[in-house]
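HOLO CASE FILE
Compound: zinc ion
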Amino acid sequence: MRFEVTILGSNSATPLYGRNQTAQVLNCNDVLSLIDCGEGTQLQLQRFSFKANRIKYIFISHLHGDHYLGLVGLISSMHLNGRKEDLYVFGPAGLKEIIDLQLRYSETSLRYKLIFYPTNPTLSEQILEDNNLEVISFPLSHRIPCTGFLFKERQRLPRINKDVVEPLAIPNAYYSLLKKGIDYIDATGKVYKADQLTIPADAPRSYAFCSDTICTDSYWQYIADVDMLYHEATFLQDMVLRATETFHTTALQAAQTALNVGAKKLIIGHFSARYKDLLPMLQESKSVFDNTELAIEGKTFEIQ
Ligand SMILES: [Zn+2]
Ligand SMILES: [Zn+2]
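Model generated. Tokens follow.
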């Protein structure tokens, strides 16, 4: 099953050096979610060949402009492009008011249904569960209310072990029950154990998105042992005072977080406009957590 994230925007605050504000596309079994929606997101979607109308879910972390100012434009384009499917938007409560206000003053009545779910920045909660994906929001510590998101694949059923099952006289119709762990008993009363006829599914994979936040352990419990962690790394460690003042994280601190929560892989992004060259960011993070990569726009990371 596909479970991968593509970076659309990696800069903090303002677009610069060809880098855009925060946005990512998560593809889970060909269902697309957009995570944050900075100003240039529509053009970035086009640039990397994503059809906006394929996006089913949108998750907005907080209401600093670099994380959502592209949203109303995207919602409008979906309308103009004839979207019919429901769109689910998860974000801070105030976001609904912002969307409604803009649509009201442009006298736009959307052709599709926009279903809005307010996130709670004070506690962790499951905000979505569908056939493929479970999503949990959790509080981060930023200047304004902000949530991170944990995306977890749903546990799959075991697969039929064809080499073992096919030589046996087990009716095909019974395979789905074997997958559910129900043993097969034939006419003579012989029991065929389901766990000996199936191959367990892979463990569900997980992806955590943490932007923006000061360095603190208050949210570590929610992202323990995550397979891939995206963490903001706005500054280098020599700017740690500035990072603390502005409720942001340094590359070194992001790496320490990844190490402490037992993440398997770290992607750092949300780079300050003061850094044209990102190599020092990567080196600083790798000095603590070797399996780090930069959030380069257009790059797709498979969650493993
Ligand atoms: Zn930001
Ligand atoms: Zn922010």
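CASE NOTES: The chain has two domains: 3-156+203-302, 159-199. The two ends are 11 Å apart (CA to CA).
CLOSED: yes
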